[in-house]
Amino acid sequence: MEEVGTGLLDRLDAMQRVAASASSGAMLIVAGPGTGKTRTLTHRIAYLVAELGVAPSSCLAITFTRRAAGELAERLHALLPDRAAELDVGTFHSLGMGILREHHDRFGLPADFQVTSEEDVPDGFVSMDDLINLPVQLLSADPVLADRYQARWPWIFVDEYQDVDEAQYKLLTLLCPPDGNLYAIGDPDQAIYAFRGADVKYFLRFAEDFPQARTVRLTRNYRSAAPILAAAVQAIAPGSLVQGRILEPARRDPDPTLVGLYSASSEADEADHVVRTIEELVGGSSHHAIDSGRASGNTTLEVGFADIAVLYRTDAQAKPLLAALERAGIPVQKRSHNRLTDRAGVRAIARELPFLTGTVAARIRAAAAGLTSGTLAGAGLEAADVHTAVELLAPLARRCGDDLDQLLTELRTGAEVDALDPRADQVTLLTLHAAKGLEFPVVFMVGCENGLLPLRFPGQESDEAEERRLFFVGLTRAQDRLYLSHAARRFRHGAERELPPSPFLSAIDASLLARRGAGVSRRKPRDQQLRLL
Ligand code: ATP
Ligand code: MG
How far is ligand 1, taken at its centre, from the CA of residue 441, in Å? Predict the structure, then answer.
C-alpha cells in the first residue's frame, strides 16, 4: 500500500487518513459500525498535537459513557504518552459538571455541590439533567463567558453524535461557533436514544449548522467476520437512515462461521443453549482457540470468558440467564440500569471518602470498615449492603488510583455500565443500549422475539424503526462469533406467553444462518415456524 503522510497515520486506511489529517473547520464523519470511527478520532487528535503543534489543553473530546471516555483516554495515551494527560476528555455530564463547578456561585451552589438522581432535589444538590441545563443557561445569558470557553477549546470532538439530545446540542453550539472546529462522528443507523430525548435530526442537519463542514464516509468494517456483517447489513436495510449505505468487510477469514440461530422451546432452554455454547467455546480451564483470519493476516483467537457478551433487550431477561450461568460455574458481570449512587451502601461509603487519606481503594476499604452498626442501622442498611458496595466500587477504584475527585465525579455522573471491568475474566451481560460502541469476539443476542425485539408493551405501539436500529447495534458488536436465539415461550407481564420470532430475523438471508433447536411451539402455524428456513 502506498505510504502517505506521517508514521502516526500509517495505521489508518486511505479514507480514515483523509478524515484524520483534514485541515481546520467542521467535519462530519458518517460511518457504519466497526469502520474505525473511534480509531480515526484518536488519531486525528494525536495528529493535531504531534504534527501540527496544537496544544492538547485546547482539545475537548466528548462521548456519552464513562467507559467510552476511559477508552478514548487510554487510546490517546498510547498515541501521545507524554501529552495525553493535558487533553480534556469526558462525557457530556462531566463536561457540564466541570463548567458548573467553575461557576457554582452563580447558582448559589456550594463549591462541593453533589449530584443526585433522586426525585426531590434538596439544597446543594443538582440533578443529572441540570448538569447540562444549567451550563446552557449560564452560557446563553453570558456571551463573554461563552467566548472564553470557545477560546479555551477551539478543537471539539464528539463521538456518537447521532445520540445528542436538545440540551447537549445547545451546549455544543454555545461552545463551538458555526465556523469552529467541531469534529462530529456518528452513524444515524445506530441512533437508539430517542426514548431519552436524543434526536438524530441534529446529526442529519449538521451541514446546515456548520455550513463549511466537510463530510467523510468510511465504508470498510474492520470488526466483524463477513457473515456477521452481511447479516447486519441485511437487517438494517429496510429501515436505514443512511442513503446508499456501503459497509464492506475488511476481514477475509478463510472459512468464516455462519451466524447461529437457535430456536428454543422456552427461556430456560435458551439459557441452557447459552451455557452449553460458552462451555464449548471456552472448554474448561484452558482457553479454546478459534481460528480467525483478521484483515491483517491469519491469527488464532483465544476465547476466554472476558471475550463473551450476552446482550438482551430488557433487564428482566438477565435473571434466568444469570441463574443458569452461575449454576454452571461461569463467572459473569452484569450491568443494571441503576447508577451506582442509587445504592444506599455506595452513598454511605462515598460520603466518608473525602475525610480519609490514601489511595481511592484504601479509602473505600477504610470507609466500609468504619461504618458502625449504628450508622448502618440509621441508614437502613445491613452489613451485606456495604459488602456489595466495595465489590461494586472495585473496578472504578482501580481505574482512579489516587484521584478521589475522578472517582466522585464518575460516581455522580455515570451509569453502572461504566463500572464493568473490561479486563475481568467474566462473561459480560448487557442490555443492547449499554453495548453501544463496544466490541466482543463472541456475542449472544437472546430474546429475538416479536414483542421483545421490537419491544412492545400491552396496549402500546412500539417504535419499530428505533428497535430495528437497536437490533443492528447488537449484531454489529460481534467480531468472530454471533449467536442469535429466540424462545417459543417466555414469562412476561406476569404470565407465560408464546412469542413468535422477531420479524427482524426474516430480513437475514437463510444462507448466512446456521439453525439449531426445534423449540418452535407446535401450536404455531407451520408457515410461521418455517419462515426463516
Ligand atoms: P461503532 O460504530 O460500533 O462505535 P467504530 O466505527 O467506532 O464502531 P472502532 O471501534 O473505532 O469502530 O473500530 C472497530 C475495530 O476495527 C477496532 O477493533 C479497531 O481497532 C479496528 N480497526 C479500525 N480501523 C482499522 C484499520 N485501519 N486497520 C485495522 N484495524 C482497524
Ligand atoms: Mg465507536
Answer: 13
CA gap 63, 159 in Å, rounded: 5
**Residue of 3, 37, 39 best suited for mutating to test ligand 1, as the one with most atoms within 8 Å of CB:** 39
| Identity of the amino acid at 432 | L
Distance CA 388, CA 392 (A): 6
CA nearest to 478, candidates 193, 239, 230: 230
- Ligand 2 centre distance from Cα of residue 318 (Å): 25
Given the cut 0.95, state whether the ipTM is greater than it: yes
CB 441 within 8 A of CB 480: yes
pLDDT tens sequence across 457-470: 877 788 999 999 99
Q: Residues near ligand 1 with C-beta < 6 Å?
A: 12-13, 16, 31, 33-39, 187, 190, 222-223, 437, 439, 476
Q: In the block, which residue shows the cell 433522586?
A: 118
Distance CA 156, CA 92 (A): 12
Residue-wise pLDDT for 479-530, tens only, equals 999 999 999 999 887 888 899 999 999 999 999 999 998 654 444 444 433 3
Task: Report how far residue 262's alpha carbon sits from residue 464's, in angstroms, rounded to the nearest whole number.
Answer: 23
Nearest CA owner, ligand 1 atom 23: 36
| Residue having the nearest C-alpha atom to atom 21 of ligand 1 | 222
Q: Is the pLDDT of residue 360 over 70?
A: yes
